[in-house]
Automatic annotation (TrEMBL):
This is Retinoblastoma 1. One of its GO terms (molecular function) is RNA polymerase II transcription regulatory region sequence-specific DNA binding. GO terms for cellular component: chromatin; Rb-E2F complex. Residues 174-184 have a biased composition (Basic residues). SMART domains: DUF3452, RB_A. It comes from Cyprinus carpio (Common carp). Belongs to the retinoblastoma protein (RB) family. The keyword Chaperone does not apply. Signal peptide: none annotated. Keywords: Cell cycle, Nucleus, Repressor, Transcription, Transcription regulation. Residues 47-149 form the Retinoblastoma-associated protein N-terminal domain. One of its GO terms (biological process) is regulation of transcription by RNA polymerase II. Residues 293-486 form the Retinoblastoma-associated protein A-box domain.
């Protein structure tokens, strides 16, 4: 390394970094850190250089230290490290950091709950990966395992009476002759103690019992604690954790026990997390809402969902069965078989994502989804008269069940999960499970929200966000049925006309039901009509346009809002450009919709903005557009860093603009040129550091 590097910071041997890692880190340093405002830099050069080494090490897969070891060498806490924003980090590093942050949030919430629960259990305080709800249920299993081994005199009520009324079963005695053949006896579960723990935590007893029997018992068996009657040796547990910690190379959660600064959250964060709403003692006082702990928020949401579904069943009600019998062909058996088949698929995929011992949990979550599915279906039948063939539409039933399951899964994930962090079970996971096109799923969302009055505000927002994700990208995947409908619509005549910009700021009002959207439009038939001379039924064309028309009305509103937001950050001094950019964008979505295939709406918005500014001689660089875009809500750096160029080839958005967008729309863009010449459309070759 150059002498300057060693003198300014510290020996790279401290971080066990190789020369290639140091060279790459130095390039990151020179490109980004030195360009920062040094007067307002919150970290020392030493810490910034360490962060560059960490990023370089992760990009090159060359880290030998664990994350905790790295933090200690550099002198950073994990919480402060999460506030560092280095634009040049790759998606690989960005995803890894988000997963670390997610794991930290889960572990911190569990530890704080562990401390509070231990204080309630013990007369004296005890001295001794990504689903928060399942992790908390495992925590209750661990507390049951240890609490029943404490002397009752050390416990507080109600745990003291729960333990006193039960005794541990004696260990199984095996003769030496049959010692090698004997099976390990599963550990005894203290049902009364576990029920007490669940009651105090507002947690489902059935779910925790399932976790205990299917997951926790398997864990105890794997670490040799199944037949243990006393407390397990601390040294043994610590050694086993040490091996796992070094294997994963992440943070050492044992440091929570000693209040280590590398894992200690700020006082502000702790105060927000630890406070829990309390009942008002005075009837005259107004209760002040207090932020809930992540676990309390999750438990409350799950409890409320179960309360809302108390009267619902995971089988069709008598009202539904009566309706089915009035259909041309009774669909009840067909629906039952489909729900059963999809349930099996869901449980298998849930176990693959969470763990093979979690099939029982997957089944319970699916049953909740089935209850909600039948409840919403019956509500839809009460609110609108559906076509009698409607109940035979497979995509409708699959979409409705998927939407119900998405509500259940999102309830279990809860608001504790950062918006920027994706877990394995987050949307659009359910679409992949059922192999359901996003465009078909989109059709049921609005009707689902209207048909379920008990749906909470945050869950409505979640489903609306799912709808936005579908409109901006998921509906435009390569094999989406949306493209078939667009092609059919183009063959029939002009597409959906854009509304005047003034109306795009107003709420969209329509009377379309789920029946309208699923019964029309349909995929173009590959078979000729039975009678070629038979004229189409009156109103057929109007019916077939309902789904596509509504989709585009919503798409235009979302696109216009996104454009206005980005415009307000960049071009307030050129208000005359907004309608021009919008006209180009609307033309692209309506007539050049193939540009959206396997791409993102925001990619077209940024490209349209850059193109118009270019021909209008307004100085606006792509780097400036991208910088402003990153400040907008619900954005991802992948949107501008990885854009489809051609099949199998991806590059930055500037390459997409040069090779695809500008080439396709050159003639149209030139219409807005001040001089109407092609000189304004020169290709962009400059390099900017945001990529």
């Amino acid at each position: 390394l150059p002498k300057k590097k060693k003198n300014l910071y510290y020996s790279y041997e401290e971080l066990q970094a190789t020369n290639p890692i140091c060279d790459h880190a130095w390039r990151i340093w020179e490109r980004e850190i030195r360009s920062m405002d040094k007067a307002n830099m919150p970290y020392s050069n030493r810490q910034q250089w360490g962060a560059c080494l960490f990023v370089a090490g992760m990009e090159l897969d060359g880290l030998s230290l664990t994350f905790t070891q790295f933090l200690k060498v550099v002198g950073l806490s994990l919480v402060r490290k999460m506030d560092v924003n280095v634009d040049t980090i790759s998606p690989k590093v960005n995803i890894a950091l988000k997963r670390l942050e997610n794991k930290y949030d889960v572990t911190l919430a569990l530890y704080q709950r562990f401390v509070k629960t231990c204080e309630k259990i013990s007369a004296e305080p005890d001295k001794m990966e990504d689903d928060l709800v399942i992790a908390f249920q495992l925590l209750l299993c661990v507390l049951e395992f240890f609490t029943k081994r404490f002397a009752p005199s050390l416990l507080l009520s109600p745990y003291k009476s729960a333990v006193s009324s039960s005794t541990l079963s004696p260990p199984t005695r095996t003769s030496r002759r049959n010692q090698g053949k004997a099976k390990t006896r599963p550990p005894e579960m203290d049902v009364q103690l576990l029920e007490t723990l669940c009651k105090e935590s507002d947690c489902s007893v059935d779910e925790v019992k399932n976790v205990y029997q299917m997951t926790f018992c398997a864990f105890l068996d794997s670490v040799g604690l199944s037949g243990l009657q006393g407390l397990p040796p601390l040294e043994t547990l610590s050694k086993q954790y040490e091996e796992l910690y070094h294997k994963n190379k992440d943070f050492d959660a044992r440091l929570f026990l000693v209040d280590d600064e590398t894992l200690s959250p700020s006082k502000t964060k702790v105060s927000k997390v630890e406070m829990t709403p309390r009942k008002n003692l005075s009837g005259d006082d107004v209760a002040i809402p207090v932020p809930q702990t992540p676990i309390r928020a999750a438990m409350n949401s799950i409890h409320q969902l179960r309360v809302d579904l108390t009267s619902a069943s995971d089988q069709p009600s008598s009202n539904l069965l009566a309706y089915y019998k009035n259909c041309t062909v009774d669909p009840s058996e067909e629906i039952r078989k489909r729900v059963e088949e999809l349930g099996q698929v869901f449980v298998e995929r849930f176990a693959q994502a969470v763990g093979q011992h979690c099939e029982g949990l997957g089944r319970k979550r699916f049953n909740l989804g089935a209850q909600l599915y039948y409840k919403v279906m019956e509500s839809m039948l009460k609110s609108v008269s559906l076509n009698k063939t409607f109940n035979h539409i497979i995509t409708f039933h699959t979409s409705l069940l998927a939407c119900a399951l998405e509500v259940v899964m999102a309830t279990y994930v809860g608001k504790w999960s950062s918006d920027s962090v994706e877990t394995d079970l987050c949307f659009p996971w359910i679409l992949d499970v059922f192999q359901l096109p996003a465009f078909d799923f989109y059709k049921v969302i609005e009707s689902f929200i209207k048909a379920e009055p008990t749906l909470k505000h945050d869950m409505m927002k979640h489903l609306e966000q799912c709808e936005h994700v579908i409109m901006e990208s998921l509906a435009w995947k390569m094999d989406s049925p949306l493209f078939d409908l667009l092609k059919q619509s183009r063959e029939e005549g002009p597409g959906e006309q854009a509304e005047p910009p003034a109306t795009l700021n107003q709420p969209l009002h329509h009377n379309h039901t789920a029946a309208d959207l699923y019964l029309s439009p349909v995929r173009p038939s590959r078979q000729p009509p039975a009678t070629e001379s038979e004229p189409p039924a009156p109103g057929t064309k109007a019916l077939r346009s309902n789904s596509l028309s509504l989709f585009y009305k919503k798409l235009y509103r979302m696109a216009y809002l996104r454009l206005k937001t980005l415009f307000s950050h960049l071009l307030t001094s050129h208000p005359e450009l907004e309608p021009i950019i919008w006209t180009l964008l609307q033309h692209t979505l309506q007539n050049e919709y193939e540009l959206m295939r396997d791409r993102h709406l925001d990619q077209l918005i940024m490209s349209a903005m850059y193109a118009i500014c270019k021909v209008k001689n307004v100085d606006l660089r792509f780097k400036t557009i991208v910088t402003a875009y990153k400040e907008m809500p619900n954005t991802n750096q992948e949107t501008f860093k990885r854009v489809l160029i051609r099949e199998g080839q991806y590059d930055s958005i500037i390459v997409f603009y040069n090779l695809v967008f500008m080439q396709k729309l050159k003639t149209n863009i030139l219409q807005y040129s001040n001089h109407h010449t092609s000189s304004c459309l020169c290709r962009v070759f400059f390099f900017f550091r945001s990529f």
